[in-house]
User: What shape does this take?
Amino acid sequence: MIIRKDDKRLQDILKRGEIMEGEYLHTVLDIIADVRTRGDESLAELTLRFDGYDMLKGGIEISKREMKDAWEALDDRLKLALENAKANVISFHEKQLENTWIYEKTPGTFLGQKVTALESVGVYVPGGKAVYPSSVLMNVLPAKVAGVEEIVMVTPATGGKVNPVVLAAAYLAGVDRGFRIGGAQAIAALAYGTASVPRVNKIVGPGNIYVALAKKMVFGQVDIDMIAGPSEILIVADSSADPDHVAADMLSQAEHDELASAIVVTDDLELAKEIESSVYAQLEELPKREIAKKSIEKYGAIIVTDDLNEAADITNNIAVEHLELCVANPMEYMLKIRNAGAIFLGANSPEPVGDYYAGPNHVLPTGGTAKFFSPLGTYDFQKKSSIIYYSREQLIADMPDIRVLAESEELIAHRNSVIIRTED
Amino acid sequence: MIIRKDDKRLQDILKRGEIMEGEYLHTVLDIIADVRTRGDESLAELTLRFDGYDMLKGGIEISKREMKDAWEALDDRLKLALENAKANVISFHEKQLENTWIYEKTPGTFLGQKVTALESVGVYVPGGKAVYPSSVLMNVLPAKVAGVEEIVMVTPATGGKVNPVVLAAAYLAGVDRGFRIGGAQAIAALAYGTASVPRVNKIVGPGNIYVALAKKMVFGQVDIDMIAGPSEILIVADSSADPDHVAADMLSQAEHDELASAIVVTDDLELAKEIESSVYAQLEELPKREIAKKSIEKYGAIIVTDDLNEAADITNNIAVEHLELCVANPMEYMLKIRNAGAIFLGANSPEPVGDYYAGPNHVLPTGGTAKFFSPLGTYDFQKKSSIIYYSREQLIADMPDIRVLAESEELIAHRNSVIIRTED
Assistant: This one.
């Protein structure tokens, strides 16, 4: 597991999420076109085929009652933990809220930016076993904080059943409407609307390759969030780090998924060896040791560098989803970090604190996209309009420049609309 | 041209930008795959085929010298106008700059958001006749304000020639590198990099259907801005509006392009009639009357409503790119507006003021996408990382909740990484 920074293995790890989209594209385009044309009829056929669920019998919509019942059936201790997590997530995301501003540029001239919430949002929640109530909170609550009026959840009712913890989390988060649909067909329904499913302004939430591609293909018709790849952690550790802690954090990533990746970057070879032993020792005790072992063997690595500056360069180049800085002076070290989804500082901030609880969003850019994407946030559910208010005096003052510019682009009607107001 | 709000014609206008992507998709995917595999060799072949330019002879890169020479050859009066426009655009976009923040959530626990600039950005500038230096400023300057280190411009050298005003504007805006490439092949080169063209983090700028589709298909590999459709204006006018002014503003939109749309919404039928006459009278004097006439006849409309509240509803539903509020009390009326790219307030703020000069960006959401997209802004070139710093005391305090949540998701290694730190 211990490698040098120029080991070819690192490239294999970083490329693990690359998907050949071509082979899925036709299927996805056909599904989108069919749902767009035939609406609910198409949805019913596709849902029966892919999820084994007959919505003509069982119904497409999930009632508020079902969500409420699921919440009430939940264990009280879990309810309390989810309520506390919700309060933390709301509190952090309220700090991200943007407000309208206007300023006076010159006497009588105002410029600004009006901020409004999106009206409606669709949240995709995957089916299958690995379904996380925390994901429902993390996708829904920022929209709620932004002031979105209608939040629509879609989730496949594989074999007719929706995970009750998802329903409970949807109730707690305040989902307005829910539908038993999934896959590319659910994305198409949210993008174009059907008789049953309302069209929304933006679609967020992770999904399989069909869902990811469908989101990409409806972009422009609606807005979408980023494209999610397999999850990953990178831990920068110096000699102050506890090898057992670092090993535990690697495993917390590895247990997610065989494609998950856990990388340590350290300037301390002895520490590297201790971490490696600890990983294998702790691994044996895990219920998900099969998954975690495959992930560690294939996509785990401990990179030994000359110093911590080199470690920062590697970290910025990888641009990881979750970054832990297990170093003596994490606040100062953070100044060297440019690219990461979330940064966990110091010995007492393990990544699961952010997954569940602290408040910042756990929907984060993966696969190097932290070079240009941001965590999901309240800002994803607000939009802006520019504001321009000119006085007649200012229009007269600026007219000569605007005239020259319009004439240089040969747009005479543009020029006229200014001149007609200043020559009266 | 005068219609009621339920006229079928309105639907035709709003759907004018819809494009059947399917037929272009294969070509675009083939081009992307080829550039990704063969790099410069592919670029050279495609550029010769589509732009009639042999880059093996003429060179692919535009030198800084060429940009500087183009700037210096510009007329002094135009130089001054462009410099003033640049200063205004920078001044407005500086107000959009976001900064890193951290707050103390509980004693010893800090949460926050680190804001950093993207490292590199690609700007697509279309070829052809309708090339606007103002577009170069509007796409490049926000990236500059954000602190992007490398701004790469690509533009097709149709027949070997790049528009000198584009080069001059690139020089003024501070483009770092320029390349004589266009179409889907230029987008692929920016997304994946070739021996000559650097890979960037985000691609912005308008283009034809091949460029738009290529941007969509490389989304995820890089970030992109919105998908640009044909331009449009909507003017809400009450009896206080000057019909000649409103007519001039409709024409300033119509002269852009036969697909451009100019809509007036008014509660005053007499005003509607006066605007209509004035449009036809002013039209005759325009150099671009052929284009403007087609646009007005096909996609121009004056909608007469019962009152101004109804006008606001229609406006929000259309979610137009440029919205002028030519009403007696525009500041107050703006409170009713939810969806618009840019809002021009009152009698002295015609749309060309924003196109060229005032400061806010002229790259705006079109075709109803103002329901979810924002104007291009400094925020497009900054990204965020979450910051989480826990004290040991806080970790101990939150451990019971985190434990319950991790166990409910059957993620035992997640639980362990918290417990191992609190049980020592």
Remarks:
- Residues 76-95 of chain A form the longest helix (20 residues).
